Recover the amino acids of this structure.
């Protein structure tokens, strides 16, 4: 068995200003319950431009143009701090809405998406410039007379696609009566698929240490579900994404666990690689339109811009040991069991202390803890507090209880062992995963040796249990032994079998 490693990571954000208004759960619900509300009248005035989104500090961290620690140099709020950002970063890019709508169309396998001729012409050149390898797919898109089909939106048989408030396309329902294939559901699922495709595609275009043909398996871990009336969550996002990205040698499946799903998926991928089932596994997640503008009412009330204005995605490749990349220690994991309990102390003990005890480690033996890396610029004005900071305080308290830290260390624990949050509140996206790109650097060319990844999920949201969920694992600097084997190698096994058969044959002839 070979130790699994973090091989590559990619991160893409997609600016979706019109989707906040048209498709976010907060605005959609408000239109139904209180169509004349003051919030709906003014929310449009609080939407940021693409340039403002690119120049936003946490977004530049997300795509790798800044280190997370640099955010500590700025006081909250961050949205009004000057920053000259770039569209592209070493981990990913920030995609404008019009190019994303074009991507949704080329990810449409059942002719459900229609776009106006005017819109196609307006985005064609941009799309060709930024995605030359996908340009042929978009060149074959046939325009539609959107005005003729506009009635489908009023009849709830289609979901509109808008640019600057103007209808430029629509997503049609995939079935007349099946709510699992409704226009709204198909829109959400196509957004999740297309955003994941752009992220995985960017990673493969910009990383030369892994090729598309080398990917054996894909695990998709967003919070959406695809299926029909007979199996509404049957899947498979993973294989749909693999098909469009061109991962011709891959199979795949979906993993769901609310916000904890990415960490579950990393552990699953690592286990598959360590067992020798697959050599290279891609863990990928598209974003969620429902969470766009989720806290918009609080942001508007405080005269903030609507900060939940991007669809977030990530793509991470876990491979067999290359002797360089950070190793994932599958035997050093933590889990929130059914019997753990739901108190914050019980949850963090199960995920942190119990995990560390498996390798006789102290809390201070970990250089960086990657927890729920939610951007506090979004959560603090919404009354949810600083989520990463709260997690670090709980870990520090466990350290004091276990004798690893002094009480006086608690105030500085977050800056010493933690990171400020920078990820958009897209549910699963902030949960540990945003740090993988930086972790690969920190545990190879950097000065760190060990990191812990923690994911927590609110299973009670599904109304089937009141339980929380959570998993964790340790990643460490690679000792430099390529294809390090644990136990007996396959070659040794073959040799032993051969010698045994030879000995058996000799004995039979002697008899």
């Amino acid at each position: 068995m070979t130790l699994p490693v973090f091989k590559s990571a990619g991160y893409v954000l997609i600016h979706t200003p019109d989707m906040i208004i048209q498709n976010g759960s907060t605005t959609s619900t408000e239109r139904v319950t209180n169509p004349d509300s003051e919030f709906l009248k003014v929310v449009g005035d609080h939407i940021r431009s693409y340039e403002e989104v690119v120049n936003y500090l946490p977004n530049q961290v997300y795509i790798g143009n800044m280190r997370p620690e640099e955010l500590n140099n700025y006081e909250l709020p961050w949205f009004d701090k000057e920053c000259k950002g770039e569209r592209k970063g070493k981990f990913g890019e920030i995609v404008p809405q019009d190019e994303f709508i074009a991507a949704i169309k080329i990810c449409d396998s059942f002719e459900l998406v229609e776009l106006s001729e005017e819109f196609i012409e307006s985005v064609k050149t941009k799309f060709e410039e930024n995605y030359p390898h996908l340009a042929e797919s978009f060149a074959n898109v046939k325009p539609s007379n959107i005005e003729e089909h506009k009635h489908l939106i009023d009849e709830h048989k289609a979901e509109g696609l808008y640019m600057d408030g103007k209808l430029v396309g629509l997503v049609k329902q995939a079935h007349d009566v099946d709510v699992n294939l409704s226009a709204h559901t198909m829109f959400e699922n196509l957004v999740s698929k297309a955003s994941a495709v752009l992220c995985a595609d960017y990673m493969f275009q910009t990383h030369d240490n892994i090729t598309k043909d080398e990917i054996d398996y894909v695990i998709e871990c967003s919070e959406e579900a695809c299926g029909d009336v007979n199996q509404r969550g049957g899947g498979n996002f993973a294989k749909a994404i693999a098909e469009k990205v061109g991962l011709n040698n891959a199979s795949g499946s979906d993993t769901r666990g609310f916000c904890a799903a990415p960490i579950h998926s990393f552990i699953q991928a690592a286990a598959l690689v360590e067992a020798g089932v697959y050599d290279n596994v891609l863990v990928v997640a598209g974003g969620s339109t429902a969470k766009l503008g989720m806290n918009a009412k609080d942001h508007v009330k405080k005269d903030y811009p609507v900060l939940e204005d991007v669809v977030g995605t990530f793509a991470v490749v876990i491979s067999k040991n290359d002797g360089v990349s950070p190793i994932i220690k599958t035997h050093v994991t933590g889990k929130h069991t059914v019997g753990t309990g739901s108190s914050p102390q019980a949850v963090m003990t199960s995920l942190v202390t119990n995990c560390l005890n498996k390798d006789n480690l102290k809390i201070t033996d970990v250089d960086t803890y990657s927890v729920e890396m939610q951007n506090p610029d979004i959560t603090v004005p919404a009354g949810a507090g600083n989520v990463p900071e709260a997690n670090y305080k709980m870990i520090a308290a466990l350290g004091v209880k276990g004798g690893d830290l002094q009480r006086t260390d608690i105030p500085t624990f977050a800056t010493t062992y933690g990171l400020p949050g920078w990820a958009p509140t897209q549910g699963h996206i902030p949960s540990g995963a945003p740090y993988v790109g930086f972790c690969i650097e920190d545990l190879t060319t950097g000065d760190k040796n060990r990191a812990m990844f923690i994911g927590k999920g609110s299973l009670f949201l599904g109304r089937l249990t009141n339980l929380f969920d959570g998993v964790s694992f340790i990643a460490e600097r690679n000792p430099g032994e390529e294809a390090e084997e644990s136990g007996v190698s396959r070659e040794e096994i073959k040799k032993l079998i051969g010698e045994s058969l030879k000995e058996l044959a000799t004995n039979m002839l002697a008899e």
In short: Residues 103 and 194 are 6 Å apart (CA to CA). The chain has a mean pLDDT of 95. The two ends are 39 Å apart (CA to CA). The first strand starts at residue 4 and ends at 15.
